[in-house]
Design brief:
Blueprint: H1 4-34, H2 37-63, H3 83-110, H4 114-144, H5 150-159
Length: about 180
């Protein structure tokens, strides 16, 4: 049985993952409209992955005898200055998610909830990967700059980072 304090923070994290999924949808849509098809594909896929992160928490809370709460949807920022601006927002969002996940891990230890501590390790590893991924994308802007055709080549490089973790037929995300 989950302690209510843990249930509250896990439900808060459901809201954070849901908000992340909508943020990535807004990033993807902006890229799509501006003609950055590679980045759009990558970000649509990431939006689906964030929903999967939310669902993993959703099922965990209910499986452990708690009650998962469907979070309200906040309208994310829709307009961005540039492709680089989109990825700066994405990186900032990942850093914030990491902080929230680490706070959950710390609380689990404080409350001696080793089962949830073990469950949350998956998110800790995931955040490490995602922060590295978005930092590496921002590095591409630093390396080649945003002049001339360079944005086209960055867009092509970003598409290569797609994991194929979304089922093209259903749009549903698989583990990733
Ligand atoms: Fe950015 O990944 Fe969810 O947790």
């Amino acid at each position: 049985m989950l302690k209510s304090l843990i249930e509250v923070v896990l439900n808060k994290q459901i809201g954070i993952e849901s908000a992340a999924s909508y943020k990535y949808l807004a990033f993807a849509s902006w890229c799509d409209v501006e003609g950055y098809s590679g980045a759009a594909k990558f970000l649509y896929e990431h939006s689906d992955e964030e929903r999967m992160h939310m669902m993993k928490l959703f099922r965990y809370i209910n499986d452990k005898g708690g009650k998962s709460i469907v979070p309200p949807i906040e309208k994310p920022q829709q307009d961005f200055k540039s492709l680089k601006d989109v990825f700066e927002h994405a990186y900032k969002s990942e850093v914030e998610v990491t902080e929230a996940i680490h706070q959950i891990a710390a609380l689990c230890l404080q409350e001696a909830d080793f089962t949830t501590y073990n469950f949350i390790q998956w998110y800790i590893n995931e955040q490490l990967e995602e922060e590295n991924l978005y930092r590496s994308i921002l590095d591409k802007f630093k390396l080649v700059g945003e002049e001339g055709n360079n944005l086209y080549f960055i867009d092509v490089e970003i598409e290569k980072l797609c994991k194929g973790s979304t089922n093209p037929a259903t749009g549903a995300a698989t583990e990733g």
